[in-house]
Specification:
Length: 244
């Protein structure tokens, strides 16, 4: 019988993170979800029947405390999904408030780095593990007004490659999923605007903005034994948008 994996998913109170957590749980993994939004986190944890910890991934002390609690309770973390991230605002290079960029850097870049650092140490000790970072095709394809966010996701791809090559000697793999736009509670307003939705879908060869259920399986796959010879990859799940 295959040993039940211990899986930690950040930013999982709703949206893509919740969908990823549900995907792992549906395959029998022991899932722990984490999010800065405590109320929504507790509701989601009850809804899908998983453990939870409130977590601010931009706070090193908070990360250390939460990872330590999980390690003490379960002895290890087999899979880390670094899903938590923010956009924070919009604005072109000559207009964006630098505070918006700084916050995105703290969460998306430093948060991903610090989570990989803390959990990576546990995985190195266990000599096994898989890390899946949630990136974005924006790291490779610019959209005006989104440059600050896209810069952070390009950094996530770089962190993924560095993590993969540095931790490979310990049997640890690191990959990323790079979605295009995804229908989540955070994008619902945009998706409900027929004109805005049609404009974005025109950029996608498959003419569809992704549903969470079309992206979550990629994260599960990259953490699975079926992907045992894949590391350092940023897998686009974008309906072909990078082709345009």
């Amino acid at each position: 019988m295959t040993e039940q994996r211990i899986v930690l998913v950040t930013g999982a109170a709703q949206g893509l993170g919740q969908g990823i957590a549900e995907k792992f749980a549906s395959h029998g993994d022991k899932v722990i979800i984490a999010d800065i939004n405590g109320d929504q986190l507790a509701e989601t944890a009850t809804q899908i029947g998983v453990d939870s910890h409130q977590l601010d991934i931009s706070n090193r002390d908070n990360i250390g405390a939460v990872v330590d609690k999980i390690a003490k309770q379960y002895g290890r973390i087999d899979v880390l999904v670094n899903n938590a991230g923010i956009v924070g605002g919009h604005g072109q290079v000559t207009e964006l408030d630098s505070a918006v960029f700084e916050k995105a850097l703290m969460v998306n870049v430093l948060g991903t780095w610090m989570m990989s650092e803390a959990v990576g140490k546990l995985m190195v000790a266990a000599k096994k593990g898989a890390i899946v970072n949630i990136s974005s095709i924006g790291g490779r394809q610019p959209t005006p007004g989104m440059g600050h966010y896209e810069a952070t996701k390009a950094a996530v791809d770089a962190i993924t490659r560095t993590t993969a090559i540095e931790l490979a000697p310990f049997g640890i793999r690191a990959n990323a999923v790079a979605p295009g736009p995804v229908i989540t509670p955070l994008t619902a307003g945009f998706a409900e605007n027929p004109e805005a939705k049609a404009m974005w879908e025109a950029r996608i060869p498959l003419r569809q903005i992704a549903e969470v259920t079309q992206v979550a399986p990629a994260a599960y796959f990259l953490a699975s034994d079926e992907a045992s010879h894949i590391t350092g990859v940023s897998l686009a799940v974008d309906g072909g948008q990078l082709l345009t």
